[in-house]
Amino acid sequence: MDEITAKLYSFLEPLIDGTDIFIVGIKVKPTNNVKVFLDADSGFSIDKCTAINRKLYPLIENSEMFPAGDFSLEVSSPGVDEPLVQMRQYTKNIGRKVMVTTGEGLEITGMLKDNNEQFITLEVLEKKAKVSVLKEIPHSEIKKTVVQIIF
Prior knowledge:
The protein is an alpha+beta fold. It has helices at 3-16, 46-63, 87-92; strands at residues 21-28, 33-40, 72-76, 97-102, 107-115, 119-126, 131-138, 142-147.
């Protein structure tokens, strides 16, 4: 982690301490565009997003991390099409349909039923037998997991 990202984490952690909000990631573009991706166990609302943005912006500005205050700040959730990256995101999405891509390139779609330190459990429909089975997939074998939007 570079120095700027570490500093941003140090600003954010006290702002979310004691809440259900957690950091998913931080990206800083060469144009000094700071993107902070947050989520919350109870959902990351626009109100939560706005509150964090309003508290974080002056901390960055007063730190003089960027010359002449030349930076922009975006605080948001990662978005529905972004892969899950934190254990808490898996737990938060229990009961939702996900597509898991394994390290071997196999894609498995099913209902996320459980998450623990070692693996996730998916309920997968076996099309030939027309029955649902539970599949445990070790976290170490997961390349990415994306929540599937059902309309």
